[in-house]
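Sorry, explain these tokens?

***
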Amino acid sequence: IEYVGARFANALTKDGIWKKGIDMKTYNDRVYILDPERNQIWRYTRRRDGYDVGEQYNQNADLSKAVSLAIDSSVYVLNSDGTIIQMYQGQKQEYPLRRAPLSSLMAPTKIFTDPDLAHLYVLEPSKQRVVLFRKDPKNGGAQYQTQYVFDKTGTLRDLLVTDNRLYVMDDKKVYFI
């Protein structure tokens, strides 16, 4: 279901099928669906009367451990082991994470960024924290910057960054920094 022009409408594809996945993001006129079971990211382009058929975006990355994705002009895929894959035009790019935090990522669940942000935000509910990595477009990869630990909260579920605020949601409340 799509919200357009103050109305809800069915979002249809040319073949009538939306591929299954575990995460979904939009970027410009496209919808990306992360499907680690099929080692794929499905990309749907918006047209006047609906969406095109889902096309395969991933060309050479192993997405079997993928748990979340984020998009600026590149696609970032977060793996369950804490590694991050950067993809550009469907091709895997080298993306080292430098200066790792003292307590490394063990079971992250969400990643967030957008074109206006200089950071990647990674949610790790098992340690009640959000870890920030500064994107390094000049040298590639990202560098650990800081982390925010949320004591005395429920299990962290999701995060969002907007208007210079980091929002984190647990099973009952929304917190912001």
